[in-house]
Each structure stands twice: as structure tokens, then as C-alpha cells.
Amino acid sequence: MNLVDALRRRSLTVAFCESLTAGLAAATLADTPGASDVLRGGLITYATDLKGLLAGVPSHTLRTYGPVSPEVAAGMAEGVREVCLADWGVSLTGVAGPDPQDGHPVGEVWIGYAGEGGVETEKLNLSGTRRDIREAAVDAALRGLLTRVEQTDPAGRCRE
Fold first, then answer.
1. How far is CA 48 from the centre of its chain?
2. Which of 23, 106, 109, 156 is the most buried (most CB within 10 A)?
């Protein structure tokens, strides 16, 4: 089953907050027929300050942990879920390269998933070109969301 079908069967929606992928996750999902039933929208927070201004990540979190961190990924996911009134918020932040950023290596990516049951983060260590890293991050985020959606019952509630 694809992600759009899984979300539709459960009457769930999703929104994305994207940094290194700059809208690629939302665009990829939108390529699937029926996406308009489940895709609420998204935020492109490529600049660090926009993670706070648009997604509501607290400035102290950004200062303390930096934009490439599980704490910021979690805040981005929670923020976009709230701003876009979605059942799921998914965030992607990381380093696409070609140079390391603030001590983080090229290919370090954090994905945040915020849903009714709380928020989770996932760390990826990817390699390749900027495009390779961005596409692999999107693929991982969409697969990760599908796994989490499939763990909910058809009414959209998390299974115990």
C-alpha cells in the first residue's frame, strides 16, 4: 500500500516542515494521485530563523542544539502539525553538503514525526551528492511515515 492510500483509509492528513529538502517531500507526495485528500501543506524553513518564525521552534532550542538536531527536528514536526492543522507533521533537517555544517558531517539528517501519540525522531547518515542525500532523506521520511501510519487502526488511533 502506498502512503496516500494508507492515510486516506484512516482519514488522516500530513504536513511537512522541510529544511535541507526544501519542499521535495511534499512535492514527492503530491505526485501521487489522491494526494489532495491527505496533504495539508508545508513550510520550507531553509534558513535557521524560519524554523522559529514559521514552525515555532523555540529560539533557546535553536541556540542550544543548532538546526541539525533531534530537538529541532521534533520542534519542526510539532510546529508544522499545529500550523497546518494536520494529523501528522513530518520534518527534515540536516546537511546535504558539499561541506560540513557546524560540526555536523555531510549526510547527517534528522527526521521528525509528530502525531497524536507524540513525537519521534530518526537519524540518518547518508552519502552521495546533494541530490542523492536530499532524495534519500525524502524516501526515508515517506517510508517512516508509512510505517507509523500503518501502526494506527483504520480510525486513525495509535494501536497499543
1. 15
2. 109
